[in-house]
From TrEMBL:
Family: Belongs to the cytochrome P450 family.
Transmembrane regions listed in the UniProt entry: 515-537
UniProt-listed InterPro entries: Cyt_P450 (IPR001128), Cyt_P450_CS (IPR017972), Cyt_P450_E_grp-I (IPR002401), Cyt_P450_sf (IPR036396), Cytochrome_P450_Monooxygen (IPR050665)
CDD domains: CYP72 (cd20642)
Superkingdom, natural source: Eukaryota
UniProt-annotated location(s): Membrane
Organism of this sequence: Platanthera guangdongensis
Gene: CYP72A1
Entry annotated with the keyword Plastid: no
PROSITE patterns (alphabetical): CYTOCHROME_P450
Protein known as: Secologanin synthase
Keyword terms, alphabetized: Heme, Iron, Membrane, Metal-binding, Monooxygenase, Oxidoreductase, Transmembrane, Transmembrane helix
KW Metal-binding (keyword) present: yes
Listed Pfam families: p450
């Protein structure tokens, strides 16, 4: 322990400082953990203004250190130094050309309940698993999965339509909505006909994540996971049920495939087929394919890796399109041009240029995974510095994506136009610096899956609704593994009639008059529609929501509510002075005084 917590950190610190790398001083025994936890807690208590300059809130400690020490610096992850690498060329070296010289960080024993499989393996095992899983994510397989994506999105929109009265609006928190959608998508695409069991696994995995978050709020004591505490028992029970469900599905599927019967195009069947093929090719080799237990781990990983990340992408897309209504309109226009009112088809999704630019810009400003970490497995030379074995290299996607030297002074602005000529030309510096899905051989295997899902879902939403942020929305991005909205994402959803009104009115008018007149008239019509919603439907909806819960009050009077009556009463009471008494409320606030008297009787 003395070596691990005292001598080793000292030796590594002097090796780094000796090469001119600045950083925080090692504090025995937990490094920068205490300070970074305090800063994170403080920043979580304060929401942000509606701005994309989110780093000081999301990653306050690293933000402070980079400001003090510069972009190349080191901090302490417990007794291990973590060097921040912000140079995109060096990041590419780490993730691509020299990727074999780095290891993934070991997951804590508790984390293994959730994060296992491909994402954690190294060396030969990783190569074998990646080879088996890859075919399941090929473009033609994704095309076959599109109906499953569509079914899930249609169910979501069907539910939303029930909330919104025709031509009206409703307030809705899209965060849990997208959480269910992306869970459903994985359940359907991964397990096809066994979708219901898939759904159950999704629920259990969510429960497992909650239990792990609960456990992580206490200091982890090695071996404590074996103690028979209620939390440990619950965690093991959930894990047993997940494994049981997966094992029985896998065994049934293997039997069907071996008997030559046709199985669906879901991820599980594709994975088992690919696995059995490899087993046949390497019959004599012991480690030809994956064992049932390994297939179980990969299925669990699909939920973890594929659900929360895509949920986050959809969530911030809705936030940014609400903050930038002109881009929302441009995207809707494009979707209508490509698909009209029809259900989006796979080939059409590839024609969506504006939507693609928007999703890239969302992934740049709000990358679901904000940072990648690697560990040096030996001494490695990078950019003129030799990093000793056992150092963490932190590749902060969020910081690189917001770097003004790379993206220009408008780095924090939402400007999808920067991606108009592709990812390579998006930066001011001409450097390739966009890597929300990582780079190199270990790039996200589900990248196209996620982008297809996001494009399809966004297209279907735009076809049916328009949206804006609710007044109750609080801008508070924070990380719980992924970059999430701390207080959810309530939006005001407007039904399709109004969503379509703008473009239909514009189309009709521009055929009748000049574009300028059409634009002005469209704006006026839209303004009238908006005013109608704001002054008529919204007050009615809110009034019935309050009365429905037994709250008494005055009736809404169009358009100014109680303003007229309260002004008259105020004027009348001001005309009359009071006797020398402290009973001043009837004079100071005559309207509220009257209403409180009426409604409490
Ligand atoms: C917007 C959505 C997504 C984002 C931003 C994302 C991001 C990433 C990133 C950054 C990595 C690299 C992690 C590392 O090397 O430390 C990764 C790996 C991975 N992702 Fe995704 N991901 C997304 C969606 C998905 C989906 C939908 C799936 C599967 C259904 C998936 C499955 C995986 C797997 C299996 C790996 C490990 C690959 C390997 O190590 O070979 N991801 N993802």
């Amino acid at each position: 322990m003395g070596t691990w917590l005292w001598w080793r950190p000292r030796r590594l610190e002097s090796a780094l400082r000796g090469q001119g790398l600045p950083g925080t001083r090692y504090r025995f025994p937990s490094g920068d953990l205490k300070e970074s936890t305090i800063l994170a807690r403080e920043s979580r208590a304060k929401p942000l203004p509606l701005s994309n300059d989110i780093i000081p809130r999301v990653s306050p400690f690293l933000h402070r250190i980079i400001n003090q020490c510069g972009k190349s610096c080191f901090t302490w992850f417990g007794p291990i130094p973590a060097v921040t690498i912000m140079n995109p060329d060096l990041i590419r070296e780490i993730l691509s050309t020299k990727f074999e010289q780095f290891e993934k960080l070991k997951t804590s024993p508790l984390g293994k309940f959730l994060i296992t499989g491909l994402v954690k393996y190294e060396g030969e095992k990783w190569v074998r698993h990646r080879r088996i899983i890859n075919p399941a994510f090929h473009a033609e397989k994704l095309k076959q999965m599109l109906p499953a994506f569509s079914t899930c999105c249609s169910e979501l929109l069907g539910r939303w339509e029930k909330f919104v009265h025709p031509g009206g609006t409703t307030e809705l928190d899209v965060w849990p909505e997208f959480q269910n959608l992306t869970g459903d998508v994985i359940s359907r695409t991964a397990f096809g006909r066994s979708y219901e069991e898939g759904r159950r696994i999704f629920q259990l995995q969510m429960e497992q994540a909650k239990l792990l978050i609960l456990a992580s709020q206490n200091v982890y004591i090695p071996g404590s996971r074996f103690l028979p505490t209620p939390l440990n028992r619950q965690r093991k029970q959930v894990d047993r049920e997940v494994r049981f469900l997966l094992r029985s599905m896998i065994e049934k599927r293997e039997t069907t495939i071996k008997s030559g019967e046709k199985v669906g195009d879901d991820l599980l069947s594709l994975l088992i087929e690919s696995n059995l093929k490899l087993f046949k090719e390497h019959e004599k080799l012991k480690n030809g394919g994956m064992t049932t237990e390994e297939v179980i781990e990969e299925c669990k990983l699909f939920y973890f890796a594929g659900q929360e990340t895509t949920n986050v992408l959809l969530n911030w897309t809705i936030v940014l399109l609400s903050m930038n209504p002109s881009w929302q309109e441009r995207a809707r226009e494009e979707v209508r041009q490509v698909f009209g009112e029809n259900s989006p088809a796979f080939d059409g999704l590839n024609q969506l240029k504006i939507v693609n630019m928007i999703l890239h810009e969302v992934l740049r400003l709000y990358p679901p995974v904000i940072s990648l970490t690697r560990m040096t497995s030996n001494n490695v030379e990078l950019g003129g510095i030799t990093y000793p074995k056992g150092i963490i290299l932190s590749l902060p996607i969020l910081f690189v994506h917001h770097d003004t030297e790379i993206w220009g002074e408008d780095a924090h602005e939402f400007n999808p136009e920067r991606f108009a000529e592709g990812i390579l030309k998006a930066t001011k510096s001409g450097q390739m610096a966009f890597f929300p899905f990582s780079w190199g051989p270990r790039i996200c295997i589900g990248q196209n899956f996620a982008m297809t899902e996001a494009k399809l879902c966004l297209s279907m939403i735009l076809q049916s609704f328009s949206f804006e942020l609710s007044p109750s929305y609080i801008h508070a991005p924070h990380t719980v593994i992924t970059l999430q909205p701390q207080h959810g994402t309530p939006i005001i959803l407007q039904g399709s009639e109004q969503a379509m009104a703008s473009s239909e009115v514009f189309e009709y008018l521009s055929s009748e008059m000049s574009v300028v007149t059409a634009t002005v008239t469209t704006t006026l019509v839209l303004w009238a529609v908006w005013m109608g919603t704001w002054l008529w439907w919204r007050p009615r909806r809110l009034e019935s929501a309050l009365r429905g819960q037994g709250l008494p009050g005055t009736r809404y009077r169009f358009p100014s509510g109680d303003l007229k009556e309260s002004t008259i009463l105020a004027r009348e009471s001001r005309a009359k002075p009071l006797p020398l008494s402290n009973d001043i409320i009837p004079r100071v606030s005559p309207f509220l005084h009257r209403i409180i008297n009426q409604c409490s009787n």
